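Lecture 7 notes: from sequence to structure.
We start with the chain below.
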Amino acid sequence: MADVHWQCQLNHLAEGETAGAALGTDPITVGEKFLLKCEGDEVQFNPAQLSLELPQEQQYQLKLLKNLGVDSHKASFVATSYVAGEKPAEFKNIFLSDGKSRVALDGVSFTVKTVITQQNNPKHEPFGPTGSFGVSYPLWFWLSFAFVFVFFIAHGVEKIFEALERKKFFKKLSAHPPAISAYHQLTKELRQFNREHLRPQSFDADIAAKFLRDLDNSVRWYLSRTFEFSCFDIRSSEILMKLKKKNFDLEKKINHSLSRVLVEIDRLKGRFGLLKFDDAVQLIEMVRVAADEIQKNIGTKAGNKISREKLEAEV
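Predicted structure tokens for the same chain:
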């Protein structure tokens, strides 16, 4: 039995999903909705089971979006197309079917144009990104760039912080201009500690506390003047880290003797009752040995004394 044929008409979709002007040769854009109306001889359909039968290669060229009404001799649909082409799309084997009955739809032909215009994109290439950054570089490139940027920012902040600390240190040092070298100042104060603090009969917790505070202050002044960076208000481990950054070879040579002094002073802070007379004598000797080791490795000219001229220039 031959198929029943219905003649179809295509119209622009007007407000309220009503028929507008005839589509004719007017092209539509990809995804644009239009009205598909077909009518012909009577065919009994089950409207709930209706579907469009198309060749496989034309599946996306015509899509029914909404059923506006179907009876035995006519049907109306909102339709669209998802495939653009330079030539009109013609449908010769297209059927409306409910699985039992079907009609062939004739006169279905239209042109679909892309939303990318020839003028703006003559080579039909995809549009590039619209934001500030392109996607022509891989993700690892941008991650590397961000890492390097953050690194230099952090490095700059660190340098500014070090400069401010250095300025603060030299200002503090200018309030007590050195008359002698840092090494001789330290050994002078160590002898003074022997005279003032180290008396076996009267060495108690109060004297131990004052001795340790004075010794820690003297050691930090000596290291600050010798290495030319502030050793105040920082942990002992930071002193060694700063020295390693400033002079790796020197830090390696003096690390053992200097770290022993710093660790021992830190251990006794706040626990002055642990510091006995013999321990204090031994601690002074440890400081003297460490200072001798430092002097042996830096020489008498390098970092041994900060001059008044340097102080005035820094402040």
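Points to note: Confidence is low (pLDDT under 50) at residues 129-135, 300-315. Residues 4-113 form one domain.
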